[in-house]
Amino acid sequence: MLVFFLPLFLLFLMIGLPVFFGMLAAPGILLLLNGQERDLSLLYRNVYNGMDSFPLMAIPFFMLAGELMNRGGITMRLVEFSQAMMGHFRGGLAHVNILSSMLFAGLSGSAVADTSALGSMLIPAMEKEGYTRRFAAAITAASSVIGPIIPPSGIMIIYAYVMGESVAALFLAGIVPGILVGLGLMLMVKVMANRYDFPASRAKATWPERGQASLKAFFPLLTPVIILGGILGGVFTPTEAAAVAVAYAIVIGVFVLRTLTLRDLPDVLGRAATTSAVVLLLVGAAMAFKTVVSLSHAPEHLAAFILGLSDNPLILLFLINLLLFVVGMFLDAGPAIIILGPILGPIFVNLGIDPVHFAIIMSVNLTVGLATPPMGLVLFVASSVSGERVETISKAILPFLAVEVVVIFLITFIPAISLTVPRLFGFVQ
């Protein structure tokens, strides 16, 4: 009977119950009906135990660092740098949007923060340049999914915590896939720019202008270098790196650039605390949910079903990508990783798939789901920022989603894309 908690959970999601409550109510009800009161108390005790983790402290720190840099005007400096480098191309502002997302990813690791921060600046600017509002919102939403792929990445921290993998290995493995997504989107923009005669946003910048823009963006661009360099050099752990990123953001914003004041800090702290609380509650609920998954023997049943479909790992990877893509349409990346990671990960590792490779397959696929209709979170954020309906953004984003799906399959069937960088640093054999 306990195995029916999954259909009940999906039913709760369909009727609009928040994910946090659905994760606890579905297994809780079935444990109660099954007479397993002791396991029921274990379920809710694990909500706290799931959050009580030092590695997870990296998530609120990285979110706070992103809020500090956004409030301190650092986002604008990244946009100006991107414009100096790519604004002269046909479809220049669309290219600027994508490059800005790639750079912003190294600061926040959040698709929602990317959509909100960059969208509020670039969507009106693109509309003024002659782009339709739905296209501007669509390219903003599509490029924002790079945020959780290029390090630092909140969902990779969650995956590493749940599955016992190295955070540094996952961060390194996300670099090339994130760049590949960005280049793929730029290629699609180039094709569309030639077909629809998109405008260039400015004349080609001179080298002195590019140098000036680079100097203004130097300190923000140094953030991912400090984070990754410190982790790989053994100077600090990923959690300590997140705290260092916060301290660096405060120093840069308050004392170097002087774009952040002490009056701004209470609001910044409040916003970061609210966002972090939502994520950590979901992690705690999902870890409790994971307890019932193991009690129900659902992983064993699903493993037997999957292995019964085929014994060819490539075919199974193709099928799992389809499953993850559908899941990503309805469930956010974090909860989906915590629920499905412990079920699917061991199956594919036993089939000979490198655990870091599978982590990137799962993370990138579910991250793209953030921009996939009907429930993609960044679609709703882009709609809120642009004032455009979600339905119209969903239609305009389809060419970009097609590119991202192609990248997902490239990552899946060419392991070197995600494994080469961590292998060079000794994290993968």
Give the SSE layout.
Elements: H1 5-14, H2 19-33, H3 37-51, H4 58-71, H5 74-86, H6 92-105, H7 111-128, H8 133-144, H9 154-163, H10 167-196, H11 207-216, H12 218-232, H13 238-256, H14 265-296, H15 298-309, H16 313-330, H17 333-350, H18 355-368, H19 377-386, H20 390-396, H21 398-413, H22 416-424
Helix pairs in contact: 1-2, 2-3, 2-14, 3-14, 4-13, 4-14, 5-6, 5-11, 6-7, 6-8, 6-10, 7-8, 7-19, 8-19, 8-20, 9-17, 10-18, 10-21, 10-22, 12-13, 14-17, 15-17, 16-18, 16-21, 17-18, 18-21
What would you note in describing this structure?
This protein is globular. The protein has one domain. It has helices spanning 5-14, 19-33, 37-51, 58-71, 74-86, 92-105, 111-128, 133-144, 154-163, 167-196, 207-216, 218-232, 238-256, 265-296, 298-309, 313-330, 333-350, 355-368, 377-386, 390-396, 398-413, 416-424. It is mainly alpha-helical and 429 residues long.
Q: What structural class do you assign from the helix and strand content? A: mainly alpha
Count up the domains: 1
Pattern of helices and strands: HHHHHHHHHHHHHHHHHHHHHH
What's the number of extended β-strand segments?
Answer: 0
Descriptive labels:
429 residues, mainly alpha, 22 helices, 77% helix
Short summary:
By secondary structure, this protein is an all-alpha fold.
